[in-house]
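During the reporting period the student researcher (J.K.) took over the structure-prediction task from the postdoctoral fellow and processed the backlog of single-chain submissions. One of the processed entries is reproduced below for the supervisory committee.
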Amino acid sequence: MMPDDGEAIWLRLDRGPKPENSTPRSSVSRFTPCDSATISSTEAQLLRGLRLEMKAEVIFPVDGPTAGDLRELLNILSQESPEYRLWGENCKWFCSVVQENLTHLYSGELRSGTLSHRDLGKRSRKRIADRLLSVITRGH
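J.K. obtained the following structure tokens:
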């Protein structure tokens, strides 16, 4: 993401089961999700010694997504996917839905890595994209 002055903003996305819910809610491994989005002005500060690696780097034009757009997308995601599923709406799905929607709506350019896992959660992915487009179109 790029602010008005053209400097980089780094975004880290995470989805996992809430720690207090380490036992699945059903026999098909469904948990209450713990979703997070962390924004920073530097990649190093964003990772802060964590053993993580960047999976993809997307560059947006100056008029790219705003923090409000990201908030809307994350709200829609939490409404459309109220459960963390080991074999479906998991961390890979969560990140790929955010990447796919922001890249498509704001002409993002993939600089490194891949936009992957597009085959996970196809039905909910379409509903999320339709809802986000509706909200973004009304807001701009």
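The committee noted the following: Helices lie at 43-47, 67-80, 91-105, 122-139.
J.K. will present the remaining backlog at the next meeting.
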